Amino acid sequence: MVFTQIVVGWDGSPNAEAALRWALARGGDATIALIQVVPGSNESSEYLRATGDLSAARVDLMDRAQQARAEHPGRTITTHTLHGRPDKELGAHLDHDTLVVVGTTAHGRETAWTLGARLAGRRGQGSVAVIPPDWDATRRSTVVVGVDGSAESMAAIRVGSEEAQRSGQSLELVHAWVVPTSWNSAYVEYLGDVELMEEMRRDVLDEAIEYARSIGAEPTGRLERGGPAPVLAELSERASLVVVGSHATGGMARFLLGSVSHDLLLTAAGPVIVVSDVE
């Protein structure tokens, strides 16, 4: 699963700048397409053209692309200005060999349905990277993949393995679990039940490690007691990247990532890739 194209959502904001810097720092020879989405239709943008705001934004986009080409000679960087909804226009580029990258604020969001969450909740083949504005690649050296035994987490392992191999960083597979709240610790069987569940959870992690090794990766494993989203969010503070699978299915459910992926996008301190490319 190799990304041959990276699509970066661009609006001139510091968040978009962080997304572009991450895409460029990621390295490789994938084509980078900077896509600027102007809200509304072509007709509704006549006012922007008349005032010069649209032209100014387009010039800023082209200037930033030219600067990126100068900083990264040999990289193919294109620019496009589209009209419509950012989630719809950027989502149209989701494909198995394309990574869509957007920025997001790290704190103080006014809504849970950020652009990154809406893109990652779309059904279909593709992966979405959400980059906080204050990520720091210099102090991060591990690609972390959240696993749960599902087909989606196997897809996440494929992406995480490729990213770790490309960057020369270590790969860590993490399975987090919690004791069901319905279990009563006063039961005599409680400790035995918890031990049995922990064994079952370790089997899930071992299967993920075996799968990663079968595709050429050399992962380590971590079994954690706790909610998956909080555990992965804490690990994101030191990880260069956290990769998880999307459990969106179809219909209205395409807007529901599943609590782990969604909560992680809202709380992660570092870059996150959500994968929905399930073979």
Structural write-up:
It comes from Agromyces aurantiacus. The protein is an alpha/beta fold. The protein has a single domain, classed as Rossmann fold. Helices cover 39% and strands 22% of the residues. It is built from 9 helices and 10 strands. β4, α5 and β5 form a beta-alpha-beta unit. α8 runs parallel beside α9.
Name some characteristics of this structure:
39% helix, Rossmann-like_a/b/a_fold, alpha/beta, 10 strands, 279 residues, Rossmann fold
**Strand order, biggest sheet?**
3-2-1-4-5-10-9-6-7-8
Task: Briefly note the CATH topology name.
Answer: Rossmann fold
Number of DSSP strand runs: 10
Mean pLDDT: 84
Share in helix: 25-40%
What is the CATH C level class, in words? Answer: Alpha Beta
Protein name: Universal stress protein
Family: Belongs to the universal stress protein A family.
Pfam families: Usp
InterPro entries: Rossmann-like_a/b/a_fold (IPR014729), Universal_stress_UspA (IPR006015), UspA (IPR006016)
Task: Briefly characterize the structure.
This is Universal stress protein. The protein is of the alpha/beta class. The protein is 39% helix and 22% strand.
